[in-house]
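Retro notes
What went well: the complex prediction finally ran end to end.
Inputs used:
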Amino acid sequence: MRIASWNVNSIRARLDRVAAWVRANQPDALCLQETKAQDHEFPVAVFRELGYTSVVHGQKSYNGVAVLSPHPLDDVVRGFDDGGDEDDGTRLIAATVRGVRVYSAYVPNGQMVGSAAWDAKLHWLARLRRTLELRHQPDDLAAVCGDFNVAPEERDVYDPQFWRTTVLFHPEARASLRHLCEFGLVDTLRLHHEEPALYSWWDYRMLAFPKNMGLRIDLILATRALAARCTAAGIDREARKGNLPSDHAPITADFDL
DNA sequence: ATGGCAATGTTTCATTGA
């Protein structure tokens, strides 16, 4: 079973590229973030022609998440089902695919350290952990996938000295991500690749991509039971090339399931 | 080669992203 995740920076602007990637890579579950489409605007028909069903949770202009699969998508939940306040933005959707609970998460960026958006980012990560505590045991088969807007470690950042002052690599954001993982989630890429400079996002500016000035902020986190079955993980740098790319590359994890 | 931001809609500039 192959699970993939991709911040596409508008599904409508990226439709041909995403459809081609699905055709070539045949994921069993594809989590999308920043679809930037209301639910009725999501191009479900294009993916249906490829044999994929889409479950979506979107809004106008910003945010938006989805899960696509050629298999049945069961027990779909949009947003946090923790009984708390209504979500501020469409940033989370979950569905069960072949017995695996799959989450597509778009963690708030946080804008500036110390801003209201920064507080909201840390709160959002804490709320995601609470939701997992309510819904799962660490020995469940679950994958929390998406754009976390936090790089876990120094080896995931091209200039840690600079980036540690920003929302993407600030010690507090890293601590919030660590706390999430301490629920019992494993960073699947690091099960198979130890080397530094494996990035999933590059700024559109400053020739960041050809210079590999990036950060690894997109993750597929697996519960221990699922991680035990992880046979491969990777980042598809090729999909960041060419005309009109997303600023993020798709990431994948394969499981013996 | 992979080349110096991009998508949206508030639309000819402002907002947001990371």
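What we learned: The longest strand of chain A covers residues 100-106.
What to try next: split runs per interface for comparison.
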